[in-house]
Amino acid sequence: MNAVPADDYLELIELESSRLIEIAATASGDVGVPTCPEWTLRDLVGHVGGAHRWVSTCVTGGLKAQQRILPLPPDGVSQLLDWFGESVDRLRSALSSVPSDESVWTPLTGPQASTWWRRKAALEAAIHRWDADNATHAQPEPLAAALALDGIAEFTEEFLPLLVQAAPAAPVPSIRLCPNDIDVCVDVPLMTPPDGAVAGLSGTQLSGSASDLLLWIWNRVGRDNVVVVGDAAILQWWTCLAI
């Protein structure tokens, strides 16, 4: 079950996209984005706007599979900002027009309720807003705790199993992520147990704000942002994940 109500995702998409636009409107588009290597702020805004438009197509397409082709943004600064605003409006309209429990196509897990896309789009906007904030301000604003918790669930359930298969063996069978601003912990298996076996808990726990834990699992912040109890070798191993 998601921590954020379905309708609240729409508000978060609007909020985080607006924040991203505010940053882009007051900073040079040529500023580099350290957490998105080889991207400038202009590239990042173009990516998020294109992703918003792609998600709009996926949601309104129902169960028909969609190719992941992001439309190219315009070159001029004012044109880019206008285009991005139109992308946000188009996305919100598309998501609002489809009931949150209606099944639609998704690229990773097959047919899912359209809430899947609401969560995906809200996280896309929020994490990349943080990327832009981090590139232009000394203290970027964290993600909302409930949305960050949903991001942890998304990553650990959908992305991590694939990433672990291509990574060296983890130093511990599992970790426990414990946000200090939400009363919940998430157990994350890092190894596939033999048939019939039960995955053991290693006792390795990472704590911090929900935002910092989500940003850590996406390799956007380092060990100074989390507190580890147990085998700290997990910190170095995690950087090997091809994210």
Automatic annotation (TrEMBL):
Signal sequence, start to end: none
Domain Mycothiol-dependent maleylpyruvate isomerase metal-binding: 20-132
Pfam family, one: MDMPI_C
GO molecular function annotation: isomerase activity
Residue ranges annotated for the MDMPI C-terminal domain, each copy included: 147-234
InterPro entries: DinB/YfiT-like, Maleyloyr_isom, MDMPI_C-term_domain, MDMPI_metal-binding
Classification via SUPFAM superfamilies: DinB/YfiT-like putative metalloenzymes
Domain of life (superkingdom): Bacteria
Keywords: Isomerase
Name of this chain's protein: Maleylpyruvate isomerase family mycothiol-dependent enzyme
Species annotation: Mycobacterium lentiflavum
